[in-house]
Amino acid sequence: MTQEELQELLTSFEKKIGHIKEWEFERADRLRAQASDAVKAGIKKGSYKKNGGVNNQNLTPVIVTDYKTGKFIAKYRSISDCAKQMGLYKGDIHKVVKGIYKQCKGYCFNQ
After folding, report:
1. Which residues fall within 8 angstroms of residue 105, CB to CB, at 6 or more apart?
2. Per-residue b/e over 19-29, b at no fewer than 16 CB within 10 Å?
3. d(CA 11, CA 65)
4. DSSP letters along 13-31, please?
5. What are the residue ranges of helices labelled H in the chain?
6. How far apart are CA 86 and CA 80, in angstroms?
7. Angle 22-43/3-17 helices, nearest 10 degrees?
8. Which helix (DSSP H) or strand (DSSP E) does residue 76 occupy?
9. Distance between CA atoms of residues 2 and 4, nearest Å
10. Contact 100/87 with Cβ under 8 angstroms?
């Protein structure tokens, strides 16, 4: 049931009854919220995986090495994880991985 249909149903109910108790207003508000959530969930249906919303196919593993020495520093499961842990921008890491930049802040990033 869409939010508009729910609103029409509620309006017709209010006209028939004439006066509504306070608890019925609260119930109507809950029903509106549930209908709104259902509509939003219907739009996003199928966009999330069952494993908590993480789509493992889009993860790009990143190996971090020192730019000057080539020494291994760390390995991360994604560019986002690497950026969060190292305090860098995802876009800069992505450009190094793609070969647009040679290094970022003294680090080299490879897949």
Report:
1. 86, 88
2. eeeeeeeeebe
3. 65
4. HHHHHS---HHHHHHHHHH
5. 3-17, 22-43, 79-86, 90-98
6. 10
7. 160
8. strand 72-76
9. 5
10. no
Residue that the structure tokens 């999330």 belong to: 48
Residues 6+ apart with CB under 8 A from 92: 101, 104
Residue with tokens 């593993």: 61
Tens digit of each residue's pLDDT (9 = 90 or more) over 51-84:
555 555 567 789 999 888 889 988 998 888 899 8
Any idea which residue has 């291994």 for tokens?
Answer: 72
Identify residue 79 by its one-letter amino acid code.
I
CA distance 64 to 74: 5
Kindly report the pTM of this predicted structure. Answer: 0.49
Q: Which amino acid is at 13?
A: F
